Amino acid sequence: MNIDAMREKNRQHWIHPVSSWLDQEHSNAKLLSSGKGAWLRDAEGNDILDGFSGLWCVNVGYGHESIVQAAAEQMRRLPYATGYFGYASEPAVKLAAALADIAPGNLNKVFFTLGGSDAVDTVIRFIKLYFNVTGKPDKKHFISLQRGYHGSSSTGSGLTALPAFHNGFDLPLPSQHHIPSYYPYRNSDAQSDDEIIALSVTQLKEKVSELGPENVAAFFCEPIQGSGGVIIPPVGWLAAMQRACKELGILFVVDEVITGFGRTGPMFACDAEGVSPDFMTVAKGLTAGYAPMGAVFIADHIYRAIADGLPSGELVGHGFTYSGHPVSAAIGLEVLRLYQEGGILENGRKVGEYFGNQLGKLIDHPLVGEVRSRGLLAGVELVTNKALKTKPDRSLKLGEKILAAGYQNGLIFRAFGDDIIGFAPPLCCTPAEIDQLIVKFTKSLNDVLTTKEIQNAI
Ligand code: PMP
C-alpha cells in the first residue's frame, strides 16, 4: 500500500489511543516502518532518533535479534499455553521466578497481565478481596495523586487524575480520591525537599482522616509521575509515603510501569529508597515493548492472608486468556538477560548521568524554566517568562510546535499539554547519541523561539 493510501485508510478506520477523534479524521499519520538501536525510520525513509523509547517502553532499543529468536523459537515450540486449570509453560514459570528474584523485599508472588492498565485493575480487585477476606469490608476507598497516571481501564482510570480520562466517563468513582501532587517546580505551599515531603504526608493523613481510616484501603503512586509531566519528587518522598501508609493502616501500592527495569537507574525506582510496597505494578520495560505483557507483584503477607483466608478450593475469579503468555514470557526472559548480562542496565546508568548533565545545560535557554531528570527519564518545563515561571499561553500551542519541530529535525520526544516536554531515551543509547539528541532538541527549541508569535510572547 502506498503512503497516501495508508494515511487515508488510517483516517477512515483506526481509532487511535488517547486521540482527538475529530482531529484524527484530518491528520497525516507519521508512519514508522523500522528501527535499530535508538533509531527509527519512517515510511518516507527519514532516520529519527527515538528520545521516548516508543512509549517509555523500548528500553533495550530496537532490532535485537536475540529477542526475535527467543520469540520465534517459543512460537514454533508452543505459541500458547493457558495458566488456567493447573497448566503452565516453562517461560512463564521461569519469568515469574526471575522477577521474584529481582523484586524489592518480600514481593515474591507474580500475577501476569497484558499491560499496565489491567495490572492496576488487578491490584484494585486483589485489594478488595484482601480486605473482604480479612474481615475489613469497609476498607474500600482509594487515594492517589493529582496528575497521577494509572492506566485507562474502567476503574483504574479513576485513580488516574488527568482531566481527559475522567471527563465524559463518569469518573472518578465515589470511592476514588486525589491529593495534590508534590510538583516541586510549582508547589506554592512548600519549598525545600523536607517541606515538600512533609506536605504530601500531611495531605495524605488529612485525606485519610476525612474519609475515616477504617474506610481507606490503599494509596497508589508512581515513584515519578510520568504522564502527568515527568514530575520528580525529592529523594526520600517514596519512603516517607510508605511510612505514612503503615502508620495509617492502609496499603501502599507503587506503580512502576514506567520506572521499572532501569529507567531511573536501579532495576526498580523502589530500590533507590529501600522501599518494598504491598503491591507493585510493572509493564513496558518488562518485555521492552517487543510484546504486550505486564505484571503485579504481591507481597508475601498479602498473598498469605488471601490464600489462607479463603476456603480450600474456592477460586479467585480473576484472570485473562493471555495471563503468562509463553511468547511474551520468552521475550521477557531474554530482555531480562539483556538488562543484566547484556549490560544494558549498566549502560543506562552511565548514559543516564551524562544525559542529565547535558540536558541540564538547557536551563539557560529562554523558553526553559526547569530541567529535571533521574536516570533516562526527564522533564523540561516550558515558560515564556523564567523569573515569573509563566506558563505559555494555550493559544501559542508551544508544546505542540516544539514537538513538530523535533520531528522535522529527526527527533521524537513527547509534549505534555503546552508546557512540559518529556524524554525517555532507550537505555542502550551511546553518549554520542545523547549529544545528537541535545543538538536536535536545542535546534527545535530555537526554530520555535525565532518565530514572530513566540518572540511577541516572551
Ligand atoms: N501506569 C503507569 C504509571 C503508566 O505510565 C501506564 C502507561 N503509560 C499505565 C499504568 C498503563 O499501562 P498500559 O498503557 O500498558 O495499559
UniProtKB/TrEMBL annotation:
InterPro entries, A to Z: Aminotrans_3, Aminotrans_3_PPA_site, PyrdxlP-dep_Trfase, PyrdxlP-dep_Trfase_major, PyrdxlP-dep_Trfase_small
Entries under CDD domains matching the protein: OAT_like (cd00610)
Listed cofactors: pyridoxal 5'-phosphate
Organism superkingdom: Bacteria
Keywords assigned by UniProt, alphabetized: Aminotransferase, Pyridoxal phosphate, Transferase
GO molecular function: pyridoxal phosphate binding; transaminase activity
Cellular component, GO, one term: cytosol
PROSITE patterns found in the cross-reference section: AA_TRANSFER_CLASS_3 (PS00600)
SUPFAM superfamilies documented for this protein: PLP-dependent transferases
Family to which the UniProt record says this protein belongs: Belongs to the class-III pyridoxal-phosphate-dependent aminotransferase family.
Protein name: Aspartate aminotransferase family protein
Organism annotation: Undibacterium terreum
